[in-house]
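A reminder before we start the practical. When you read a complex entry, don't treat the lines as separate problems. The point of joint prediction is that each chain is placed relative to the others, so the output describes one connected object in space. Small molecules and nucleic acid strands, if listed, are placed in the same frame. In the example below there are two entries. Take a minute to note the order of the lines before looking further.
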Amino acid sequence: MVKSNYIIELTNVSKSFGDKVVLDDVSLSVKQGEFLTILGPSGCGKTTLLRLLAGFNTASEGEIRIGGEVVTDTPPHKRPVNTVFQRYALFPNYNVFDNIAFGLKLKGVERKQIETRVKRALKMVGMTDYEHRDVDSLSGGQQQRVAIARAIVNRPQVLLLDEPLAALDLKMRKDMQMELKEMHRSLGITFVYVTHDQEEALTLSDTIVVMSEGRIQQIGTPMDIYNEPCNSFVADFIGESNILNAVMVRDRLVRFMGKEFECVDTGFGEDVPVDVVIRPEDVYIIAQRSSAMFTGTVRSCTFKGVHYEMFVDTPDGYEIMIQDYNRFEVGTEVGMIVKPSDIHVMRKERVCNTLEGVMKDATHVEMLGGVFECTPAEGVEAGEKVRVEVDFGDVELTDDSSDGTVGGTIRFILYKGDRFHLTVRTEEGINIYADTHDVWEDLDEVGIKIRPQSLRISRMQ
Amino acid sequence: MGRLFRLFGRRSNWALPYAVFLVIFVVLPLLLIVLYAFQDAEGNFTLENFVHFFNQPEVIRTFVYSVGIAFVTTAICLLLGYPAAYIMSRMRSNSAVIVVMLFILPMWINMLIRTMATVTLFDFLKMPLGQGALVFGMVYNYLPFMIYPIYNVLQKMDHNLIEAAEDLGAKPRQVFARVVLPLSMPGVMSGVMMVFLPTISTFALAEMLTLNKIRLFGTVIQENINNTMWNYGAALSFIMLIIIGITSIFTYRSKDGNLNDTGLI
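Here is the predicted structure of the whole assembly.
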């Protein structure tokens, strides 16, 4: 058997709690010695993924290998991994020394050796001479250091860290980030780090795994993820960005905001709808409007320390975020330039809603857990399964969820420069996407209405 | 009216009615016990009552026996109660509530009625009343007081601690011995006090469940007081209070005063 050089291999792993699917067909390989970060908003399944690796939960489907061995159903105490918990989870009945020695004592390591190893671990986390302190008497940062020492003293093949710095204040967090990176270098073991903080992920990682809704969105180096996000979710989640609807006219030419721009992307085809991402620091803002690619009026300007953050309204109703070292007064007419290489083109995941439904009668279709009126559809009979297409702009949202044909919750909001692209989860758990100019908030309860003539019904193939 | 309003307007003053109650029915009687214990029938200071106690081997034997019975009862309650509390704390919350209710339910019925029912049950089963029945009755009556504080501590325990122990290589048995058990000690101590202290001084249960064949220390005190031997009764009560006090301090000290974690004390 050839020993693979991946320390962790997940193959088609899924996990559900009851009906709720938390991880959906996740496959992932982690190289020996890598610092891998799993990044995503809360509820994306990142902590569950870590718990599957630690063995606190077992996968509903799929296979997990650590160090080449299948550990899918192995209990936590037999796995070659150790975990650093978000809330430290130090044993309050033991002092610092006994907490760190806990794992070594269980393994039956010799007393003398335990002492040297605990001392070395304490030194590594900068807590020398704290052996006999009560854990309750330590500050949050110190407790987290002890928790890290308690894990690394066992020399695990993989160190799992579950948002270890989330409970610390900003300054302490920054210091600890550097120390963790240094620790990773000197220990040479694999770190799997879970966080919702994109800056932390970019700073620490060799590889970032971006997750959303139980699925992996993108795997790559911090540079890849930042510069070449693969979809609008990743672009929006990592750093600040302007995300706009666009059409790929042909290779190296893309049209958005009513203008054509040169770009460097190829292979999308001709006249294909796409998303473009332009980072705010990649937009050059100039006073001279004649030589600009497009123009606009500065609507707001905020000092951010290193740079100014400005929002510029274009004549055709788009809002562009710009970061620049120069300050432009609110109300100034300005010109803007974007280099072709700074326009990142991404394939759209979908261009309209495609839903499944059942015809109730000639003018009613049942879908999303409700019955919608539709224009008489040709060639489909009552009781037949149909495919229903609805454009994003045709999905109407109402304040009161009982005003809609069905109710839903806003799960994700993406600003597209001139409109919001919302992901609405219906009570049935199906996502429907809506474009709107109205301002909604995450987790707002809404009603969903669709005009009969906006439903395009066709037979299921 | 205005003055009354001002009096009860301050929240700290709401404790006044209870403070009055406390003084009349708790502090004063305790002082009277101490006072009576050191007096003879004429009201002169004396240590005679205590000398009398130490000269009565039978009463000392009863005292030792009572402590022994209380000890056995507490031990049985602990052996039965800890596993029950542990299992309950591992249950899903809504089923745990039902089981906790089932354990608390007998406490809705008056202790004497319950004990009378126990006597009838023993008669019905043709089982003799006596020491066995006494221990059974005490365990039956005091078991909830053991289960509840232990359950409370176990249930509040951070589940991450158990996972951390597993993660560091502890087998389920080791997780229990090194993490769960030590951390549940405040609950155990609380439960021990809740069972041990009242069982030392009980007399009604002994009377009913042994047909007055077995006398406990509580019985002796009650007999003396009933026979107007106020001073000697008070001295015996005083001795018992000292023992209870020592036990409490001992159990309290053993865990840095963490007893308030249990939700009972």
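Discuss with your neighbour: The helical segments of chain A are 46-54, 96-106, 111-124, 140-152, 170-187, 198-204, 222-227, 232-237. What might explain this?
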